[in-house]
Amino acid sequence: MTDLTSPLTLAHGPALKNRFMLAPLTNQQSHADGTLSADEIRWLSMRAEGGFGLTMTAAAQIDPHGIGFPGQLGCYDDAHLPGLRELAANINAEGSHSVVQLHHAGMRTPHDLIKGKPVCPSDNEEFGARAMTLAEIETVRADFIAAAVRCETAGFHGVEVHGAHGYLLCQFLSAEINTRDDQYGGSLENRARLTFEIIEGIRAACGPDFSVGLRLSPERFGMNLKEVRDVAGRVMAEAQIDYLDLSLWDVFKTPMDEAYQDRRLVDWFTDLERGNVRLGAAGKLTTGAKCREAMEAGLDFVVVGRGAILHHDFPQQVLANPDFEPVSLPVSRAHLRQEGLGEHFIDYTSGWKGFVEVPERAVPANPA
């Protein structure tokens, strides 16, 4: 278990005390104005207490017009600072590297949560989204950077830029979705331009002890595996980020693209030169054995999602027992409450097939 227990240094900011990162998990527990609720602070603070080397928030909106889901955390206004300060202080006190994930949903913004149409690199009929103007792209870039500065002001150790899962930056990367003919469309270099400009802007605006990560997903949402591999290689070579967080759905799966099925999806990234940039991945790492296997595949850290929902102390459990397996599914609402989930989060997980017990229907008394 040496690999999982050993500290992990970053080029900027404090080292991780171990190799466990909490995945940025949607939980819908923030208030409608984007301020943190007591439930969300408790949920995240408990994961820091449970031993995660890096504790990351859910995707946090950098612009209310780019909100991704109800109950989403915000970091676009100074009104968010009191809650962010409290959360950062709680995480930092546990010796965990504290991170806010910065996010804009783009065309995936629900229509009922905003006025007007969602925005997208290009007009998109399927989502009823309109193309962004050049001025709007520049504003979004500035909003990402301003949000990072706000998170630094609140006391967080760093931010992660969300470039995955079909949200705005992922939409720019996609040749299927992005059909622009200006400097933000066409070639891969142009389609990746906004992501790199945001990273460069955050690095320039924030201090030398502030970490910057990037999340990418190489499949689905109009992604091309080779192109994402090329972006990953470039972002690690340029060393503007501290870590690359890959969302793979299943770390050990075979790629969907038949041209790349001669090795596992994770193996298409672990062979890239990474210099001082750390590489991790998420995708069904729910047991101690799976976490070990992921490290043996060449990753620097593991990103844990559902295992962390089921057990706030997942890292401590795995470090104490290398063969630790989480509680069997489905689990009760009472179990999730005990693990620090609020009712909104529990309701959200109830929509996942087989995750939460369905209460038996009350049987009427026999009218004898």
Provide an overview of this structure:
This protein has 368 residues and is of the alpha/beta class. The chain has a single domain (2-326), classed as Aldolase class I (TIM Barrel), CATH 3.20.20. 34% of the residues lie in helices and 13% in strands. The protein has 14 helices and ten strands. The strands form two sheets. Strands 1-10-9-8-7-6-3-2 form an eight-stranded parallel beta sheet. α3 packs across α4 and α4 (134-154) packs parallel to α7 (193-205). The longest helix is centred in the middle third of the chain and has 21 residues, at 134-154. The model has no long low-confidence stretch (mean pLDDT 96).
Main features:
368 residues, two-stranded parallel sheet, 13% strand, 34% helix, TIM Barrel, alpha/beta
If helices are DSSP runs of H or I spanning 4 or more residues, what is the number of helices? Answer: 14
Largest sheet: 8 strands, parallel
Classified in CATH, the superfamily is Aldolase class I
Q: Overall pLDDT, averaged?
A: 96
How many domain units? 1
Give the total of beta strands.
10
Q: Which stretches are poorly predicted, pLDDT < 50 over at least 5 residues? A: none
CATH fold-level assignment: TIM Barrel
What structural category do the secondary elements indicate? alpha/beta
Distance separating the two termini: 63 Å
Rg, Cα atoms, Å:
20 Å
Which class in CATH terms?
Alpha Beta
Shape: globular
